[in-house]
Structures are given as structure tokens and as C-alpha cells.
Amino acid sequence: MKILGALKLLYVQVLVATILGVVFGLFFPETGVALKPLGDAFIKVIRMVIAPVVFCTVAIGIAHMSDLKKFGRVGGKTLLYFEAVSTLALFIGLVVAAVARPGAGFNIDPSTLDPSVAAQYTKGAQASTTFAEQLLKIIPDTLFSPFITGDLLQVLFIAVLTGFACSRLGSFGTQCAHAMEAATKVLFSIIKIIVWAAPAGSFGAMAFTIGRYGIDSLRPLAFLIGTFYLAAFVFVIVVLGTIARLAGFSIFQFLRYIREELLIVLGTSSSEPVLPQLLVKMQQLGASRSVVGLVIPTGYSFNLDGTNIYMTLAIMFLAQATNTDLTFWQQAEILAIAMLTSKGASGVTGAGFITLAATLTIVPAIPIASLAVLVGIDRFMSQCRALTNAIGNGVATLVIAKWENELDTVQLARELAAGPREIAPAGHEKPHASPDLSPAE
Questions:
Q1: How far does CA 337 lie from the centroid of its chain?
Q2: How far is it, in rounded angstroms, from Cα 203 to Cα 24?
Q3: d(Cα 219, Cα 336) in Å, to the nearest integer?
Q4: For residue 237, which of 96, 114, 288, 388 sits 20 to 30 Å off, Cα-Cα?
Q5: Residues 356-372, buried b or exposed e (16+ Cβ, 10 A)?
């Protein structure tokens, strides 16, 4: 009976589906590859509602701000935090690669590799993009184009303008904010329906990954994969754990609270499908709507800790594998370049690899053709990247909310002690009645 009861929980269903996907991909690889549309469809249908959810959440939060100076203050603190933690993640990747030396002994001759494999990724990597061009990309071509392309930074830009406009329109602006709140209820009702398809999406995505690449593809580079997962684990437990402790909560309780979202990320290899749920759960944990609405969407472009660790670790691996000796100043240059190229990479599967390609185009010392070595294992690496990115953005939200005195610490302690519960539309959360209640799934 307990087993049947556990199977009613969504996170258990996702976990079981992920394991079944691995087994299915192993024994029926061709059929597993054919199941790719299941995972793609789930991610696609979630992405369909992300832009309007982010728009409404951010616009409503700003519209209800009594002090618009607060927006600039929160935004400044958010970017400062992101830059500091992201740089630390990049540095950890360099240090771990220097200590573990995962590429030592490979002796790869780039001339023996197929350059066309790396070319398909480098052609989409814009190495010469300037800071000014990056800023101009935030401004959309039309008012509605970001909702079609799904560019979160452009959606955020329009949402900020809309929120400011509503705050200047008095009672009419308040009515507009209430209308967006009503729309948000509908959107989260849609998300609640979609999320129940997460087990099917996780099963299809995992069956495809194992069926397409197979466990055998992991063996030659198992040490690199293990090194990356270890580096990410240390970052989450030590770095984010310390930050969380300073903010007054336990990283382990936090991971337990968002376990459902983490399992979806694991199954789909993307952090994007859980963005709407994170928006709600951070509010359930006591962070204010205005802080959550600003930090989470911005973090998906500027606070990609897992991607940052992967970038510097992978670059150092390729340098070691191709016997390319890098001086201290060249490593410092890689760190500086990665700080720029890592900004704007989304949580979509494969974006980290394209960002890596963009960085290598600026580092001529490392043969670009060596990227072909990592293609076969990137899908397995992307799971860890996405998990670390999602955790990092959740922690950042609570920390910045605490920094702004916009975090209900009593509610945070109560929610973490009680455990995760079913999400409700943003702004309509009902906290646990007491810390002794069982999680309401």
C-alpha cells in the first residue's frame, strides 16, 4: 500500500520514469531513439507558457512596488551576486581541472578528428559580439516578438516597461495588474496540467539519450564526467551551502523542497521546464513576488553556475588532451573570456556546448576541432549543468530576498521543515499550517 501511495507522487513517478527510460534505452536502443519526440514535446509545451508567465510575474511585481528606486537597488544587487558567484564557478572549474587533470594521457591529434563535427556548433557561436551588441539584443524588434522567439531577456525588458507603466497609471494601472494576476491564475492552471506529463517526457528523453549515445560512449571519458559531477557537487554543497547557511537556511532542506523540479531537470536535461514552478516555490518559501519575478528570469541568462564550471573544466580538459600548454596568463584570459561568453546561454539542452564553442573561437591556442571529442558525452554533461543552474538560481533568489529584507524567514523555516507541496498560482499560496504537517503532494 505504501508503494502504491508513493507512486501517486509526481516526483516518484518522474524518478521511476527516468530509470525505466535508462533501461529501455539500453535494451531497445533503436526504439529509444524513436521516443525522442516525447521529451521534446514536453519541453516545447512548457516553453510555450514560460514567456507569458515571466511577463506577468515581473510586470505585476513592479506594478505593486511603492518605491520604484527599489527596482534599481534589487537589480543592482542581483547582478552583483550573479557576477560574483558565476566567476567563482568559473574559477572552480579551472582549479579542479588543474588538480585532477582529466585530459592527461589522451594525446589527441586534432588533425585526425572530423572538423565538420565541431563546425556545426561553432557556426552558431558569435565570438566577436561586443558588450554593446549584447545590450542591443535585449531590445526586441517588436513588442510581441519575444513571446514568439522565447528570448527571456527581451520578455523581461518588456515586462519591466509594462510594470513601470502600470505603476504610473494610478487606479487604472492597478486594474491592469489585477487583470494580469487573473491571467497568471489561468497560466499556472495550464502548467499544472502540463507538469503531470513530466514522467512521459522524462522517459522519452532518457530513453533517447541512452539509446542514441549508449553507456559505452561514457567509458573513454568517464573520468572527465566524474570530475565534472564532483566539481558541481562540491560547488553546490560547499559554496552554495555556505551562502545558504549565511542566509539562514540549509541547502539540504532546500534540495529536498525542490526535489520534484530537480528530477524533471534530470530527466529532460534542461532547467527551462521548471522555471514556472521555481517562480511559485520561491514565493512559497517566503520570498516576495517582486524579488522572485526579477531574480529567477534574469538568473536563467546571467547565473548559470553549472555551465560556468563546465566551460572552464572542458577547456582545460581539451588543452590537456591535445598537449596544449597554457600559461598562467592564458588561463586568466580564458577566465575573462568565459565571464563574457557565458552570459546569455539559456537552460536549453546543448546551449552550454555552443557557449563552449564560442569561447574556444577566441582561444586560438586550443584546436577548435578537438570539440568533436566531447560531442558524444555532452548530453550526459548537460544534465549536471542544468541541475546546478536550477539550484543556483533558487538559492540566489532566497539570498537576494534576505539581502533586501523581502524574505519571510518564519515562513521559510516552516516550509522547509514541512517539505514540498503542490504549487498554487503565484500570489495565492497557502503556507503549511504548522511545521508538523506531512508534505501535501
A1: 21
A2: 9
A3: 32
A4: 288
A5: bbbbbebbeebbbbbbb
How many CB atoms are closer than 10 A to CB 386?
29
Which DSSP state fits 219? S
| Contact status, residue 63 vs residue 163, Cβ threshold 8 Å | yes
d(CA 382, CA 181): 34
Contacts of 270 (CB under 8 A, 6+ apart): 43, 347, 348, 349, 382, 386
d(CA 161, CA 168): 11
**Cβ proximity of 399 and 296 under 8 Å:** no
Helix axes 351-360, 328-341, angle to 10 degrees: 140
- Grid cell, residue 293, equals 519575478
User: Contact, 357 vs 307, CB < 8 A?
Assistant: no
CATH architecture group of domain 2-418: Orthogonal Bundle (1.10)
pLDDT in the model for residue 413: 93
| DSSP code string of 326-369 | --HHHHHHHHHHHHHHTTT--SSTTHHHHHHHHHHTT-TTS-GG
Q: Measured at the alpha carbon of residue 428, what is the angle toward residues 426 and 429, in degrees to the nearest 5?
A: 90
Please give the Cα distance from 40 to 380 (Å, whole number): 16
Measure Cα distances from 49 to 144, 166, 210, 284, 427 in Å. 14, 22, 29, 20, 18
Which neighbouring-strand residues pair with 252?
none
Rounded to whole angstroms, how far apart are CA atoms 242 and 229?
19
Residue 287 DSSP class: B
Residue pair 374/222 in contact (Cβ under 8 Å)? The answer is no
CA 183 – CA 53 distance, rounded (Å): 9
Angstrom distance (rounded) from CA 29 to CA 23: 10
CA dihedral 258, 261, 267, 270 (to 10 degrees): -120
Cell numbers describing residue 388: 546546478
Q: Which three cell numbers stand for residue 313?
A: 573544466
User: What Rg do the C-alpha atoms of the chain give, in angstroms?
Assistant: 22
What is the Cα–Cα distance from 336 to 352, expressed in whole angstroms?
17
The grid coordinates listed for 95 are 582549479
Q: Which amino acid is at 353?
A: F
With cell 508503494, the residue in question is 3
Most confident of 94-103, 106-115, 378-387, 390-399: 390-399
Name residue 153's amino acid: L
